[in-house]
Write a structure and sequence with these properties.
- Keywords: DNA integration, DNA recombination, DNA-binding.
- This is Prophage CP4-57 integrase.
- With 432 residues, this protein is an alpha+beta fold.
- It has three domains: 102 residues, Double Stranded RNA Binding Domain (2-Layer Sandwich); 111 residues, DNA polymerase, domain 1 (Orthogonal Bundle); 196 residues, Intergrase catalytic core (hpI Integrase, Chain A).
- It has 16 helices and seven strands.
- A four-stranded antiparallel sheet has the order 1-2-3-4, with helices on one face.
- The termini are far apart.
Length: 432
């Protein structure tokens, strides 16, 4: 007969443990029972037979588990028997799977691990912006998404909130930058798990899609720069920098860096700042921007004019004994920080309100434009400024350094910068 709740309550302990079975008159589905211990404890058990042997599964103690609950719990065991499964073995298998799933979930990389992995790859690839990218991701993302959040659990909605906050505070352009960093980081994560180089790594990101792909870029914030200094503006700026007039507020080394960027035809400040003294050939009057420093990862041989050579000689006394031409003021194992360059330009604009707004990058555009005005071909200007030449011939076959052509062009540019009237002899066509 089926046992009742009242009967279970009335069961009295004996000297030895004993069982009372709930008989629902079904066969081949196991049976629910109550085990009564000598000290009065009562516990529900499920019993079935496997190969003639009794197998028990503990259900829970009475009355914490009621009779109704116990009957409900054993139904799944009865169903397993009907399907030809061993309930106890199946429970153990499911527990192992549960533990495995838990361990796999724990092993899934966090968004912090994703960012670090992505930035580490940037550093391996020689991307000099890797530190600033990581700082931007930390600053903008973590206030909205905790760093321990699994990367695969991050949603498009959460990332949209990050970028929306930036737009609301007026940082539209920077929001596009952070969007591109996020997109690249999640793309990195998509391929990370299947990269043989990462096969033994602990972190697996388990990404199935890039949550940034559907987030719209703010096109209105991406305006191609148009500003360049006119020749009179450039001459005034160079005069103020060179002669240290009141209101410039820049160190001698920073002044020299600005002037060298201009006298070398608009070189990237980083490529000059990160170069070492060993890169200068004083006899040949050249500077070799090595591949590790160059943005396009190719050596760039740059001829130096007399003025550029004089500037290098002047600043040599400030970095005596240091490998860098432009050493860091406090950490002599590093080169100068380039945010100082932006600060110098910002202070100069504050003290010269008649100047139309410009930024350091506009100086490179200025050189490119004004050199064109004196007849230097675009291709030669590109080579002087170390732009990547993407045509097949330049990428794979042309290994000529165009040193003499670049020297003639920079000498013509020097004449213009020094205010000397130029004639047709200063027009420099590209070598055919």
């Amino acid at each position: 007969m089926a046992i009742t709740q009242r009967e279970i309550v009335g069961l009295k302990p004996k000297r030895d443990s004993f069982y009372v079975w709930d008989d629902d008159r079904s066969r081949g589905t196991g049976r629910l029972g109550v085990k009564v211990y000598p000290k009065g404890r009562k516990s529900f058990v499920y019993r079935y037979f496997k190969e003639g042997k009794r197998v028990f599964i503990s259900i829970g103690d009475f009355p914490t588990v009621s009779l109704v609950d116990a009957r409900e719990r054993i139904r799944k065991f009865a169903d397993m028997l009907k399907q030809g499964l061993d309930p106890k073995a199946e429970l153990e298998r499911r527990e192992r799977q549960k533990q495995k799933d838990f361990e796999e979930q724990q092993a899934k990389g966090s968004i912090e691990a994703l960012f670090k992995s992505y930035v580490s790859q940037m550093e391996k690839d020689g991307k000099r912006t890797h530190q600033s990218v990581y700082r931007a991701l930390e600053k903008e993302v973590y206030p909205f998404i905790p760093p321990e959040t699994k990367a695969c659990d991050v949603t498009t909605k959460e990332l949209t909130a990050v970028l929306s906050s930036m737009i609301q505070r007026g940082a539209e352009t920077q929001s596009n930058r952070v969007r591109s960093y996020l997109h690249a980081a999640f793309n990195h994560g998509l391929y990370h798990d299947n990269d043989p180089a990462n096969y033994l790594n602990h972190d697996k990101f388990a990404l199935s899609y890039n949550p940034v792909s559907q987030i719209k870029k703010q096109k209105s914030a991406e305006r191609v720069g148009q500003r360049f200094l006119s020749y009179p503006e450039l001459r005034e700026f160079m005069h103020d920098i060179e002669h240290e007039i009141e209101g410039v507020r820049a160190s001698p080394v920073m002044r020299a860096l600005l002037l060298l960027c201009i006298h070398t035809g608009g070189q990237r400040p980083y490529e000059l700042a990160a170069s070492k003294w060993e890169a200068i050939n004083w006899e040949e009057k050249t500077l070799l921007v090595v591949a590790d420093v160059s943005k396009n990862k190719r050596d760039h041989l740059l001829p130096l004019t007399d003025t550029a050579m004089d500037l290098f000689r002047q600043i040599k006394s400030y970095s005596e004994g240091n490998p860098y031409i432009f050493p860091h003021t406090r950490d002599l194992s590093k080169h100068i920080r380039l945010d100082s360059l932006s600060q110098v330009i910002a202070r100069y604009r504050e003290d010269h309100p008649h100047f139309e707004h410009f930024i350091p990058r506009d100086l490179r555009r200025t050189c490119k434009t004004l050199m064109g005005e004196i007849g230097i071909s675009k291709e030669l200007r590109d080579r002087i400024q170390n732009h990547a030449m993407n045509d097949v011939s330049s990428k794979h076959y042309d290994r000529y350094d165009y040193l003499s052509e670049k020297r003639r062009a920079l000498e013509a540019w020097e004449v213009r910068l020094l205010g000397v009237d130029q004639d047709d002899s200063n027009v420099v066509p590209l070598r055919g």
